[in-house]
């Protein structure tokens, strides 16, 4: 025979387990961008949780049930709003009105309506902080129990009200902790990954990310290696802070000259790499020339005019990405040797590399 304490403990364990299952549906940071399919899936999971918690409630005086059925509904409404809250509520309402009838239907429906209306009134003001969630939880739970004061059985109902509110708040806090810990974990790993794969100054990808992207490159892609001309003189004359701003401006120019599917990397001090995806040689030449002309026409803050040199090569079926990158580097060197402010390329994959002598 299960005692009251055991039943309450089982309810809390169910909240932890079911909250953990819901938390596993969060697979990435930026959860506010979740699409409607994930929201529907979580709403249905919350509905199942609510029904299970209702069926395993603790009975008082054989008629009044103390349970945590409202906890999953609270989570969904406060997170996603009324539409998904209604979706998660429907199975609970059906079971409560047809299977378990510990309260008169009109009393339950009135309390549940007040519960939902209270949540609708506060859910837009919810922030990422925990306190607003707990305040909303307390207000909505008291609203749910308010009709009990007008019931003929109000004496016995009010006796259970405070334990019910406190028990549900405890369950809600536990569920929040479980899901929040998962989100914080995803946030931390996202930030660590971002720091490892992006350049902190310009915000674009770094060499490590390019090395990770290399297996995904295909013949028909092009590697464009760029280097700002005489950039060392900028640092020597104007200081490194000005040099940093120049690099940031140059990055913005690169991004404006490339397409959405292309990727820009900073792989050295003033050395950048652009991966042009699914492009023809003529298209590579156009983009390279666009970058060169845009940089030459741009007036950099506190510096004025600067130029850029570049070398690019098309990826070939029988040539490794590393070899193509080395070839682009040779053509960058050739552009420097020939006077800078120009783009050199290899249209013939069998063309010999320029001499470094």
TrEMBL record:
Superkingdom in the source lineage: Bacteria
Q: Where are the transmembrane segments?
A: 7-28, 40-58, 70-87, 107-126, 157-179
By its UniProt entry, which InterPro entries does this protein fall under? Answer: Diguanylate_Cyclase, GGDEF_dom, Nucleotide_cyclase, Rev_trsase/Diguanyl_cyclase, Sig_transdc_His_kinase_LytS_TM
Pfam families the record matches: 5TM-5TMR_LYT, GGDEF
Q: Which GO terms describe its molecular function?
A: diguanylate cyclase activity; phosphorelay sensor kinase activity
Record flagged with keyword Transmembrane helix:
yes
Taken from the UniProt entry, a GO cellular component term is:
plasma membrane
Tell me the keywords, alphabetical order. Answer: Cell membrane, Membrane, Transmembrane, Transmembrane helix
What subcellular compartments does it reside in? Cell membrane
What biological process terms from GO does the record include? cell adhesion involved in single-species biofilm formation; cell wall organization; negative regulation of bacterial-type flagellum-dependent cell motility
> In this protein, which residues make up the domain named GGDEF?
219-348
> Keyword Metal-binding, does the record have it?
no
Query: Which PANTHER family did the record assign?
Result: DIGUANYLATE CYCLASE DGCN, REGULATORY COMPONENTS OF SENSORY TRANSDUCTION SYSTEM
Q: What is this protein called?
A: GGDEF domain-containing protein
Q: Which organism is it from?
A: Deinococcus cellulosilyticus (strain DSM 18568 / NBRC 106333 / KACC 11606 / 5516J-15)
């Amino acid at each position: 025979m299960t005692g009251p304490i055991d039943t309450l403990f089982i309810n809390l364990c169910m909240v932890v387990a079911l909250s953990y299952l819901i938390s596993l549906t969060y697979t990435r940071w930026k959860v506010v961008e979740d699409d409607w399919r994930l929201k529907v899936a979580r709403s249905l999971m919350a509905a199942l949780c609510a029904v299970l918690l209702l069926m395993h409630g603790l009975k008082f005086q054989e008629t009044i049930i103390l349970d945590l059925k409202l906890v999953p509904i609270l989570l969904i409404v406060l997170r996603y709003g009324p539409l998904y809250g209604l979706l998660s509520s429907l199975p609970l309402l059906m079971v409560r009105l047809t299977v378990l009838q510990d309260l008169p239907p009109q009393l339950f429906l009135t309390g549940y309506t007040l519960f939902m209306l209270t949540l609708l009134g506060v859910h837009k003001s919810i922030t990422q902080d925990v306190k607003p969630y707990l305040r909303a939880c307390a207000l909505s739970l008291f609203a749910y129990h308010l009709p009990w004061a007008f019931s003929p059985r109000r004496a016995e109902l009010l006796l259970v009200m405070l334990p019910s509110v406190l028990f549900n708040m405890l369950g809600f806090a536990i569920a929040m902790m479980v899901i929040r810990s998962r989100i914080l974990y995803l946030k931390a790993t996202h930030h660590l990954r971002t720091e490892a794969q992006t350049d902190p100054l310009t915000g674009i990808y770094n060499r490590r990310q390019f090395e990770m992207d290399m297996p995904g490159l295909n013949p028909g892609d092009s590697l464009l290696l760029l280097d700002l001309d005489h950039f060392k003189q900028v640092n020597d004359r104007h200081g490194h802070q000005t040099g940093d701003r120049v690099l940031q401006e140059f990055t913005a120019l690169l991004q404006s000259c490339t397409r959405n599917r292309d990727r820009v990397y900073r792989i050295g001090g003033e050395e950048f790499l652009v991966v042009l995806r699914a492009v023809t040689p003529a298209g590579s030449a156009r983009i390279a020339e666009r970058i060169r002309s845009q940089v030459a026409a741009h007036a950099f803050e506190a510096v004025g005019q600067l130029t850029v040199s570049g070398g690019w090569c098309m990826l070939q079926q029988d040539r490794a990405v590393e070899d193509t990158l080395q070839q682009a580097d040779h053509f960058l060197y050739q552009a420097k040797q020939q006077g800078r402010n120009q783009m050199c390329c290899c249209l013939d994959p069998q063309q010999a590399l320029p001499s470094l002598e």
